[in-house]
Amino acid sequence: MRVLMIKNSDNQNISRDEQFLRLLMSNQEKIYAYILALVHNSNDAEDIMQNVTTVMWRKYDTFKPGTSFIAWGIGISRLLIKKFFEQNRRSKLSFSSDLEEKLAMITAEKLTSEGNSLLEILKECLKKLNPRNHELIRMRYVEKKTVKQIADERGIAPHTMYRIMGKIHETLHRCICRSTSVQESL
Amino acid sequence: MQNTKEKYIYSLTLQAIEGRISEKNFSRLEEHLQESSRNRQIYSDLNIMYSYMRRPALTFGDEIELEDHDLSFDPDLWNQLATYEAKAPTITISKEEPQRELIQKVVYPPKKEHKLSKFNIFTFVMSTAAVLFFALFLRFFTPQRGVEVATLADSVNAVWSDDAGSIEKGTRIATRSGEMVLHEGLIELLFDNNAKVVVEGPAGFELISEDQINMNFGRIYATVPHEAIGFIINTPTSRVIDLGTEFGVEADAFGNSYLHVIKGKTTLIAGEKDNKVIMEVDKGNAKKVSAVTSEVSDITCNDRLFVRDLDSKAGFVWKGQTVLMLTDIIEGGNGFGTGISEMGIHPLTGSPSKTIYNHDGAASNIYHVVRSNPFVDGVFIPNGQTNQIISSRGHLFRECPVTSGDWYSVFQGVMRPESKDPDSPYVRFLVQHANMGITYDLQAIRSFLPDVKITRFRTKCGVGMQADRQCNADFWVLVDGELRYKKTQVQEKKQFYPIDIELSETDRFLTIVTTDGQDPKGRVFDKVCLLTIDSDWCMFVEPVLVLE
């Protein structure tokens, strides 16, 4: 056993600002996912994410290189989500505190233990969708259309389109689970 | 049925994400999520998928045409944008009018003003650039060396394996250091995220990251504050994830794992692949994970099994005891049984002292600050003739009666039968003969037990049977100079009166005083002229501070 007295010489040639940007770039989707899981509304999540990113940048001096950036980001997110709920008061469309805690736990665990392989797997799974489903997903995420807009264009009821989109997401999810260790929990 | 519900979760979650979920559907979603951890897993996974797909440059990079962004990084620009972001005026964006739907009543979220600042634009641009960052930096910027993530905050009688040598208090501990083997003793590690663990030797462990430790064998107790969200302890057969709790984990020599949750809630993960089990374990519950079968079974939660706190300076080793014994402090201990029997405190000097009997008459009422015992502020002989100081901060015992100023013995702990019944069990008494006062420093005790609250002082007071003549004594208890209890003119021996005083976190000085009942001088018994304190063997039955 050795106790290493590390000097972060590896990082000496990289500016603090670049380090922050790199870490942010590789973790921002995870941080956003954590926020979204708790507030469930993408507009709210975007607003909070914006504040989280700003706070992380300002507080970056307190972050210790080599420690878990995602855990640090989640910690800050948790505080700002709490502040968001305090400022906006809980509406009827808010999860109970108990459920919120469970979702926070399960999402944080997944995000902190997972590497970056999920993205690659997701890309592969997207390619496996049949052309019809792939087009719908493309409309939703690349063309940034809402499910309702897509439904309107296709001339079908929004709730039917939500079911179709739900089914496609389920297919994607199952594909990811088959391809990763995530399936172990299913 | 389960599959049907799962399908609902996908579509309901998408409705929620887009802010188009009705109250009724939101209730259904919540109900499904409350139902099972599997449903919550699906919800969590879906949110993660959505987060990646909302950046088409990441997930559809092969299919969309990337703009030729300048990827160079300008910290000044970033700084300016961050500053501007804080001060930027709000730009109101007109929103499309919501259209009524025929399906069911939809509750639209309240109209919101969305801020669109340069920061947003910059974030979008940089997100697009993330494709290249993923490709380049994640490949080449993987740290190959360990980093310091924790500090050895304290240790008691720690003996490390030979190749570790001695590790001093304050040493920084790094990841990738290999297994650290503690043969015996106790150590306390403070992680940089403020999670604290106490490891009991023999134990073998390895730091994985600032919020993760592998416990190969031995016992470990974790105290995890809010900021250390997601702290993880891995054993050979389990993983315990915490979100702000206290729990102990033991990995035995056979590979079995034991989890005891003392506060809050944890998630326990055991087994692999198809046998994987994920469950929540709450306060007061304990689980065993079998090394052979990976089966999880209930066991009795033992809240005294793990050392939770230690302080080498004061010799504190706390295993969750709920009382701190004042007799042990009098004997030079830490309140948890480390004192030396027969040792006491001299009432005139405050120094440690074995039994001494005073035959030199009355003493002055000077308050003697005690230097030798960190938990005793001072001692005194009350005589009521001048202001009676009872603490190093000058608190006064205003109700102090006039006494002779005579005293007889040292403060001392003794074992005696609990009652007059000859078969009654022996218990620990604090002997404090009449005309003696002692002040305990609760703040000093708290400083060694920062996570513990002192909530009450409990004991019984009365006069013992050591002498056969008539007793007459008074008992007083004060907190920061405020009288909280008194029992005067106690003339029956072996009659003990309960004392139960609530203490707040701001209370500092607990003073216990005995006086002589103001007996007249010159009493004669059996042709002997008696002192006012004669036969006043004042005693306190198992005096304790109650801890939480």
Helices and strands, with pairings:
The complex is a heterodimer of chains A (186) and B (548).
Chain A (H helix, E strand, L loop, with lengths): L15 H24 L2 H17 L10 H20 L8 H17 L3 H12 L2 H11 L5 H8 L3 H22 L7
Helix pairs in contact in A: 1-2, 1-3, 1-4, 2-3, 5-8, 7-8
Chain B lengths: L1 H16 L5 H13 L1 H17 L2 H4 L15 H13 L30 H23 L7 E13 L11 E3 L5 E12 L4 E14 L2 E12 L7 E5 L2 E5 L3 E6 L5 E7 L1 E6 L6 E6 L3 E4 L6 E4 L9 E3 L4 E3 L4 E3 H5 L13 E2 L6 E2 L14 E2 L6 E5 L30 E7 L8 E6 L4 E6 H7 L5 E10 L9 E7 L2 E9 L6 E6 L6 E7 L7 E3 L2 E3 L7 E10 L1
| Most strands sheet of chain A | none
Greatest contact pair?
A: A-B, 95 and 118 residues
CATH class of the largest domain in chain A: Mainly Alpha
Just name the CATH architecture of the largest domain in chain A: Orthogonal Bundle
Task: Report the CATH superfamily of the largest domain in chain A.
Answer: RNA polymerase sigma factor, region 2, helix turn helix motif
Mean pLDDT reading of chain A: 80
Instruction: Tell me the number of structural domains of chain A.
Output: 2
> What structural class results from the helix and strand content of chain B?
alpha+beta
Indicate the overall shape of chain A: globular
Structure annotation, total helices of chain A: 8
Query: What is the C-alpha radius of gyration of chain A, as a whole number of Å?
Result: 19 Å
CATH overall fold name of the largest domain in chain A: Rna Polymerase Sigma Factor, Chain: A
DSSP strand count of chain A: 0
Low-confidence stretches of chain A: 1-13, 182-186
Principal-axis shape of chain B: elongated
